[in-house]
Each structure stands twice: as structure tokens, then as C-alpha cells.
Design brief:
With about 240 residues, this protein is α+β, with helices and mostly antiparallel strands. α4 packs antiparallel against α5 and α9 packs across α10.
């Protein structure tokens, strides 16, 4: 007479308590094939309820409580675990963004950010948008070692370089906010009107210099329309009359 193996039940609360203590890998939680079969519906239920989540630590997936977040040491270990040491540098082996350089998606953060900004935030403090990180080593493209980083103003990188159309449009939009009496509709009227600068300034309660600056393209530029917006007005001799 064959003996039947006893029914083994897995307690969901015990599994959750184990995961809540610290992140654990699936192979460490289910050491045998039988345990893996029994644990699968329990883990699926915890994931569906939002009690646990998958996070990547040390290059492998771990199960962690939903409210868990790694310490600074664990974050730094995760980042440097994806690098290779070459000539005193820590070279990033993940994705290289054309604009930001080394980029990293962290499951515990839920977003993709610059690896260097993450490292700087862990070792020092979070940087504002006006500040960037530059590398002082021989591998500025993919090194992420904190000791090779230096803070710099974001404008330094663009100093001396021609502004892009998007950049010029952003500058123009910022200047518009400082001109309280002008709106898109009033600017359109100024550009379309055949009246003199003095007459328009009196009607719109603005200075003649403001009307002339709109017509010459020095103020309220619209780069989305055409790069030649305002040139016709600037070359019109009749509109230059005071």
C-alpha cells in the first residue's frame, strides 16, 4: 500500500512577513520545485493586491514589500554593480542617453534618471535644474564615479554655442511674460495694421518703442511661425514713421 504525501499548505501571512523583513530572491524563497509550485499562487496574490513588488538589486530581481525603499548604501551598490572598473573609473554598462549620458531605470524609484545625478544625490544632495555634473577623468562619456564628478552651471556647457530654435522660442516666451500690456491678439493687430507707430501706441496705451520693437521683431518673437516674422514690418518705411 502506497503512502500519500501529506498536503502542504503555504501561509500567505508568513510569506509576506518574510518578504517584509528584507527583499528576497525568488530562488531563495522557493528552494525546491515543490515549494515553487506551492508559492506561485501565494506570490501572485500578493502581487495582485499590491502588497509586494519586484525590485532589481545587484543585477537580479527581488521580491520586496510595496513600501520598501533601499538605503543609500544599497542604492549606490546597485548602481556600481552595473559598472565595470577600468583605470580607476567606474564605467557604466547600461544605456547611454544622447543628452544625459548614463541613464538608469530604478524599480525602487519608478523613473529613469541620469546615473550621475543619482550618484550625486546619494553621496551629497540632490541637484537643482540649473546645475549639472561634469566629469574630470579620462572617461567623461560613461564614468559615474563620484570622486570624478564636479558641479557646474548648466549655462557653461552652452556658452559660445549657437542657440537652437527651441531655445530661442523658450527665451522669447519668457520675455513675453514680462510685457504685461501685450497679448497675442494685440501683437497680431500691430503687425497687421497700416497705422503709424504713434497712433497704435496711443490706441493700445503702450509706448512707441514697444510698438516699434514688435514690428522690428525685437520683442514678442514667434519662432514657431517663421524665422522671418517681423521682417516685413521692419523694412516698411511707412511704419517706421514716429
Amino acid at each position: 500500500m502506497t503512502k500519500r504525501s501529506p498536503n502542504i499548505e503555504v501561509d500567505s501571512d508568513e510569506v509576506f512577513a518574510c518578504i517584509r523583513m528584507k527583499p528576497v530572491r525568488w530562488p531563495d524563497l522557493a528552494r525546491t520545485r515543490t515549494a515553487a509550485v506551492l508559492l506561485r499562487p501565494v506570490i501572485d496574490g500578493l502581487l495582485a493586491s499590491g502588497a509586494v513588488k519586484f525590485v532589481r538589486l545587484g543585477g537580479s530581481r527581488h521580491l520586496a514589500a510595496a513600501a520598501w525603499s533601499p538605503s543609500k548604501e544599497e542604492q549606490l551598490a546597485e548602481i556600481y554593480g552595473r559598472c565595470r572598473a577600468v583605470d580607476g573609473c567606474m564605467l557604466w554598462t547600461g544605456r547611454l542617453d544622447p543628452q544625459r549620458g548614463p541613464a538608469m531605470y530604478a524599480a525602487w524609484a519608478g523613473t529613469e534618471r541620469s546615473v550621475r545625478r543619482r550618484v550625486w544625490g546619494i553621496r551629497s544632495r540632490r541637484l537643482d535644474r540649473a546645475t549639472m555634473v561634469v566629469m574630470t577623468c579620462a572617461n567623461p562619456e560613461d564614468c559615474v564615479l563620484f570622486e570624478h564628478m564636479q558641479r557646474a552651471n548648466r549655462g557653461v556647457k552652452l556658452k559660445g554655442k549657437p542657440k537652437t530654435l527651441l531655445h530661442r522660442n523658450a527665451i522669447a516666451a519668457a520675455k513675453r511674460k514680462t510685457t504685461g500690456k501685450l497679448t497675442d491678439e494685440r501683437v497680431a493687430l500691430i503687425l497687421a495694421s497700416e497705422k503709424s507707430t504713434r497712433c497704435l501706441a496711443r490706441e493700445m496705451d503702450v509706448s512707441q518703442a514697444t510698438v516699434q520693437a514688435v514690428r522690428s521683431g525685437d520683442r514678442w518673437r514667434n519662432y514657431r511661425a517663421t524665422p522671418f516674422t517681423g521682417l516685413d514690418a521692419a523694412n516698411d518705411a511707412e511704419r517706421r514713421r514716429a
